[in-house]
Amino acid sequence: MSALREYFRFLEGIGVITKSPTTGIETPKREKNGRQVLRSDEYTKMLSLAGANPRDYAILQVFLQTGIRVSELANLKIQDIDFIKPSITVRGKGKQEREIALEKKGVHALRSYLIVRGVDSTSERVFLNYQGEPISERGIRKLVVKYRKEAGITKKASCHTLRHTFATYKAEKGVSAFQLQQWLGHANLNTTQIYVHLGKQNERKVMQDTILV
Fold first, then answer.
1. Which residue, 38, 50, 124, 157, could crosslink 148 as a Cys pair with Cβ 3.0–4.6 Å?
2. Which of 57, 113, 147, 195 is catalytic?
3. Which residue spans of the chain are classified as CATH 1.10.443.10?
4. Is-catalytic flag, 125?
């Protein structure tokens, strides 16, 4: 648009045209950087590498199976896990509580970790560091970066990337924006709509990649 505007301004200046056709046309806003999303082979590699460590594996699975924030995962308590339903209760922004159903992989990962963790710790938090104290948000971020690097993933994947991956995958599978909003704990539905939009974009790509010849 800038190039066209300058070109027609030049033509207008030398008398070739009387008025630039770009007059009144707004310059498009620069698009925001796309949200990073991991491919299935990428997050599967991370899970495989973490498989020997029940805590790390459970952390990655909870991120991928629930889409919770790093702060919510760090503050998750033993009593927040319901293995009967199964589900977890999350305390998000503004101290708002929401319940997220747990899939089989998440249930298995948490059960396996809690068996190893034991009940001797006085901490009510689920995830502990190697000193038996609640793991910090910084510790969780470092853990995710560690497995991302070991998996050979060059994109700057973070804890939030796992959240985006969860939401985008669910949107691709047809989960409504209203359900995603509840799971993700978004105050505004517009924040959730981006995932529905990304899901539709990916559907078009899949259709194009599988076109009949």
1. 157
2. 195
3. 40-209
4. no
